Amino acid sequence: MRVTWRSVAVGIVVAGLLAGCGSTVTGAAARTGSTATASASTGSAGAGSGSGSPPNASPAGSAATDPGSATASPAVSAPPPLARMTVGIDPGHNGGNFSDPGFIDQQVWNGRENENCDTTGTQTAGGYTEARFNFNVASYLRGDLVALGARVVMTRHSNSGVGPCITTRAEIINRAHANVAIDIHADGGPPSGRGFTVLEPVADGPNDTVIGPSVRFGADVRAALLKDTSMPESDYYGRDGLILRDDLAGLNLTTVPKVLVECGNMQNPVDARLLTRPSFQRRLARALTAAIVAYLTGPVR
Length: 301
Fold this sequence. Notes:
Number of helices: 8
Low-confidence stretches: 1-9, 18-69
Largest sheet: 6 strands, mixed
CATH topology: Aminopeptidase
């Protein structure tokens, strides 16, 4: 089996996250840079340093003849793998949307047609809301990415507000010039259906130049979810865990590589048990982190 830097880097990142570690690897050259100045949640994490034996050090137990020959080389800190990268995260819906139908029902242009500014999202049979799930996973994901050196832009910072509108969410991430972005959701499908689906954009004007990169990122997300979680591909929506959508503002209006992921079906009792567990939400976040690392540090495909 041919081992690539991409597979090694992603494997180490995932192992470190599962162990509760911070950044332990260095990143390969990224596809794009970012000099965004938009207001956003930011963070960085220091990287580990390493040092070896000095090349002229005397053997153990012997005296050095040159006083300067045993001087250790200065430690060199490697940048974290996502240093200088900006990642956009859109946790779908909001916990307060139920309280203000007048606001979320206003019509906005999604790139092809008018639709509601936002919706309440779905929920499990037990009343656990999609908005809460989305925000929890997004928060875990943000923490993982910050630990790897990324600047993270969130479209909302709590689960108690209303909105913002789907068009505003796209604008927030576009203005930040994110290197990649992800919309986090859970589906409200038929109770008999299970699994995740990655939604990818269709060329629609503003997003024309990022269709190819978005499809590549979608493949990374699909692979990471299959590898690092127990959630299967959807058996009722899309094909092989993927589907193209041309009616969503977040995908139609994006100017950065982006996908939307339905992490499972909240109407299905098996999926619902997983989606409401904090441990599974963390695992989903780690899988999404691995996908983002794979996309940003891997070779151009």
